[in-house]
Amino acid sequence: MYTVFIIIAVVFVLITFLALIAPKTYEVSRSIELEHAPEKVWEHLKFLKKQQEWSPWAKKDPNMKLTYTGVDGEVGATSHWSGNKDVGEGEQEITRIDEGRRIEQDLRFLKPYKSRSDCYMDLDDLDGNRCKVSWGFSGKNKFPMSIMMLFKSMDKMVGKDFEEGLQSLKHNLNS
To answer: What is the superkingdom listed in this entry's lineage (predicted)?
Structure first.
C-alpha cells in the first residue's frame, strides 16, 4: 500500500511540475508577398466564403458542411463547419474589421477538443501593385493541453497549414 501511495505522489508531483513549466500561450503566423493590388487581395480576406476558396482545411475535407450566419464581410458574420477528423467542428466569427488593412476573428473549435483562438489577417500595401498578407492566430493553452505543448509545437502543427493556405491564395489570385 505504501508503494502505491509513493507512485501516486510522484505522478502528482510530476504532473504539477509539468503544468507549471508548460507554455501558457501560443502564437502562430505566416506571411506572403503578392504581386497584386491590395484592393484585389482584400476581397479574398474579408469575406468568409472567399476564405473557403483558399483554405487548407477545405482541401482536407471537400465534403465539409458549412453554414453561414450574418452578413458576410461584416462584424458578426459567422461560419460554422463540421467535417472529418482532419478538420473537426468549429466556427469563426468576424469580430473587427479595419477596412482594407486587418480583419480579426474569434476562432472556436468544438471537436475533437474545445478551444478558442484569436485569428487575424493583416494586409500591408508595399507599393500599390504589391502587398503582404500576414495570417496568424494566438490563444491560451489550458491544462492538460498545456502539458502536451511541451512535446508538440503549435507552430509546427499549424504553421504548414497557414503556408499552404497562403500559397493557395496566391495561386487563386494568379488564375
So the answer is: Bacteria
79 membership: H or E segment, kind and range: strand 78-82
33 CA to centre of own chain: 20
The pLDDT value given to residue 79: 96
Query: Do residues 81 and 110 make contact, with C-beta atoms less than 8 angstroms apart?
Result: no
How many structural domains are present in the chain? 1
| pLDDT bucket at 7, cuts 50 / 70 / 90 | confident
**pLDDT tens figures, 78-98:** 999 999 998 999 999 999 999
Residue type, 134: S
DSSP secondary structure letters along 117-163: EEEEEEEEESSSS-EEEEEEEEEE--TTHHHHTTTS-HHHHHHHHHH
- Domain hosting 49: range is 2-174
Alpha helices in the chain (DSSP H): 2-21, 38-46, 48-52, 56-60, 145-148, 154-174
- Domain of 102, CATH number, reads 3.30.530.20
The tens digit of pLDDT for each residue in 129-163 reads 899 999 999 988 777 776 676 677 777 888 899 99
